[in-house]
């Protein structure tokens, strides 16, 4: 575990670098200097999967390859006193963002949003938000734990909601259900700060991160609103590590084994079939 004061510095630097990411507009990023993208599925604290993904990304030898993480918190790994270890992946992201600021990105999922808006997520009768907070204190102690926890919340609020790849692929944790699509306004994601209504059920960010609609009609409508052709997303558990629910979307999941990720070209137009062929599993 890194020294608490050093970790706090890394987290604050990472938040500043997220805000300064090239191509950023509000909470959206159009990836620049990007010829390839490696996108992970939901990690939920799975450090071993992250380590494999990082080795595969090989960022030092591929300076135009971008590495995208999503939904890293609220996992099954615990400290001896019961706290959630998933904050370790936030720490790893922060360190990596400081090392490769233009190449490394993290998308928030509904779990990160629930944590920073203080809306409890319950699983097996356990409050995932409290377990996360307890894990931070267990790792960093009562003196630094609250400071580091506050830095996590600041980082979560700063993260981009969507990434646009140069070839028309959109990377988003999910997309709004059909009933919310008529009200969904992509321009609200381009603001520097979210309005309270964006965070409420049916609001632009809430519906973007919580939607589970995978119909071809809904994803097509969403992509038209976003001005993109294909979608790489997460949010939905996949027994095989990935799923292909329609001809515009690929869903990735890294929380269990097999864990799915996609490494695809970003500097040329690709078909859905080519995108699917770029999916790999751990």
CATH superfamily: Metallo-dependent phosphatases
Task: Give the topology string: H per helix, E per strand.
Answer: HEEEHEHEHEEHEEHHEEEEHE
CATH architecture grouping: 4-Layer Sandwich
Care to count the β-strands? 14
Q: What is the CATH class designation?
A: Alpha Beta
Beta-strand residue percentage: 15-25%
Please give the count of helices: 8
Uncertain runs with pLDDT below 50, 5 residues or more?
Answer: none
Oligomeric state of the chains present here: single chain
Shape: globular
Cα-based radius of gyration, to the nearest Å: 17 Å
Question: Average pLDDT across residues?
Answer: 96
GO cellular component, one term: cytoplasm
Domain Calcineurin-like phosphoesterase: 38-237
EC number: 3.1.3.16
Keywords: Hydrolase, Manganese, Metal-binding, Protein phosphatase
Description:
There is one protein chain. The chain is α/β, with parallel strands linked by helices. The protein has a single domain, classed as Metallo-dependent phosphatases (Purple Acid Phosphatase, chain A, domain 2, 4-Layer Sandwich), CATH 3.60.21.10. Helices cover 36% and strands 18% of the residues. It has helices at residues 4-19, 47-57, 87-99, 110-116, 128-158, 204-210, 216-226, 272-277, and strands spanning 24-25, 28-30, 36-42, 65-70, 104-107, 122-123, 126-127, 162-164, 169-172, 230-233, 242-243, 249-252, 260-265, 279-281. It has a seven-stranded mixed β-sheet with strand order 1-2-8-9-10-12-11. Strands 5-4-3-13-14 form a five-stranded mixed β-sheet. A two-stranded antiparallel sheet has the order 6-7. The chain is globular, with a radius of gyration of 17 Å. The mean pLDDT is 96. It is an enzyme of class 3 (hydrolase). One of its GO terms (cellular component) is cytoplasm. GO terms for molecular function: metal ion binding; protein serine/threonine phosphatase activity. Residues 38-237 form the Calcineurin-like phosphoesterase domain.
């Amino acid at each position: 575990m890194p020294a608490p004061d050093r970790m706090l510095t890394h987290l604050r630097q990472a938040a500043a670098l997220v805000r300064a990411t090239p191509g950023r507009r509000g909470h959206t990023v159009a990836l620049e200097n990007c010829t390839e993208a490696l996108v992970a599925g939901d990690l939920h604290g799975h450090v071993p999967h992250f380590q494999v993904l990082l080795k595969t990304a090989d960022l030092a030898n591929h300076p135009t390859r971008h590495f995208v993480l999503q939904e890293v918190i609220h996992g099954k790994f615990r400290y001896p006193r019961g706290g959630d270890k998933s904050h370790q992946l936030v720490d790893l992201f922060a360190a990596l963002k400081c090392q490769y600021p233009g190449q490394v990105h993290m998308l928030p999922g509904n779990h990160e949003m629930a944590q920073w808006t203080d809306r409890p997520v319950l699983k097996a009768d356990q409050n995932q938000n409290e377990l996360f907070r307890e894990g931070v204190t267990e790792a960093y102690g009562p003196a630094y734990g609250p400071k580091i926890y506050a830095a996590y919340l600041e980082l979560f609020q700063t993260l981009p909601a969507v990434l646009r790849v140069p070839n028309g692929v959109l990377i988003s944790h999910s997309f709004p259900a059909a009933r919310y699509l008529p009200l969904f306004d992509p321009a609200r994601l381009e603001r520097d700060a979210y309005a309270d209504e964006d965070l409420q059920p049916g609001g632009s960010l809430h519906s973007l991160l919580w939607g589970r609609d995978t119909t071809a009609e809904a994803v097509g409508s969403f992509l038209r609103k976003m001005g993109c052709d294909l979608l790489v997303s997460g949010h939905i558990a996949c027994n095989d590590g990935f799923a292909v629910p329609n001809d515009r979307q690929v869903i990735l999941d890294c929380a269990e084994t097999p864990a799915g990720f996609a490494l695809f070209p970003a500097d040329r137009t690709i078909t859905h079939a080519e995108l699917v062929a770029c999916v790999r599993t751990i």
